[in-house]
């Protein structure tokens, strides 16, 4: 019985990844191209999300600042989820909704990119971050699921939306991590001059 539950998780995750590969390959390639051009123009990537998505932001920033699979120069990416003094001060003095938006107002520059991660597409602090990034004339790559929620509806044509076709948070997060590794690989491939359209 317990093993059946475990097998169920593996099967559902594997089947979703196969299905998502078909619908997400185009938007992932577009996001990797956008990130490459942002980084090579001297701009940076800021990332925000809650819970497991906060961990994804940190994972992504670590792979850009450190490395993914190949040795290269450090790339400027920062998770907005890690400074507990900023998070508690803004959460306490303003509201939890403002914890990422304030940091975007502080650090975001036109031409920078916000990686916004929300499985529901409805987290209000991620929505506020996207609004702040739009005001700052930043690019946006949004990782969502469940049809994209309110975030899907507020993105502009120049933003990239990677929406996992599933309703279950855990499954969506598992695909988000795979997307993040595809983005790291796409950026590295472009930096090393490989033909990423092959
Ligand atoms: O990892 C999980 C569930 O798998 C949780 O920590 C989850 O990330 C949190 O409930 C988040 O607050 C959900 O926010 P969101 O993905 O809907 O924006
Ligand atoms: Zn989780």
From TrEMBL:
Co-factor binding comment: Binds 1 zinc ion per subunit.
Enzyme class label: isomerase
Pfam families: SIS_2
EC number: 5.3.1.28
Cofactor needs: Zn(2+)
Cellular component terms per the entry's GO annotation: cytoplasm
InterPro entries linked: GmhA/DiaA, Phosphoheptose_Isoase, SIS_dom, SIS_dom_sf, SIS_GmhA/DiaA_subfam
Record-listed substrate binding positions: 50-52, 63, 92-93, 118-120, 123, 173
Pathway: Carbohydrate biosynthesis; D-glycero-D-manno-heptose 7-phosphate biosynthesis; D-glycero-alpha-D-manno-heptose 7-phosphate and D-glycero-beta-D-manno-heptose 7-phosphate from sedoheptulose 7-phosphate: step 1/1
Start and end residues of each SIS domain: 35-197
Residues the record lists as binding Zn(2+): 59, 63, 173, 181
Coiled-coil annotated spans: none
Catalyzed reactions: 2 D-sedoheptulose 7-phosphate = D-glycero-alpha-D-manno-heptose 7-phosphate + D-glycero-beta-D-manno-heptose 7-phosphate
Subcellular location: Cytoplasm
Example of a GO MF term: zinc ion binding
Primary location group: cytoplasm
BP terms from Gene Ontology: carbohydrate metabolic process; D-glycero-D-manno-heptose 7-phosphate biosynthetic process
Superkingdom of origin: Bacteria
Protein task: Catalyzes the isomerization of sedoheptulose 7-phosphate in D-glycero-D-manno-heptose 7-phosphate.
Subunit and interaction comment: Homotetramer.
Record NCBIfam families: PRK13936.1
Family, per entry: Belongs to the SIS family. GmhA subfamily.
Protein name: Phosphoheptose isomerase
Biological classification of the source: Bacteria, Pseudomonadati, Pseudomonadota, Betaproteobacteria, Burkholderiales
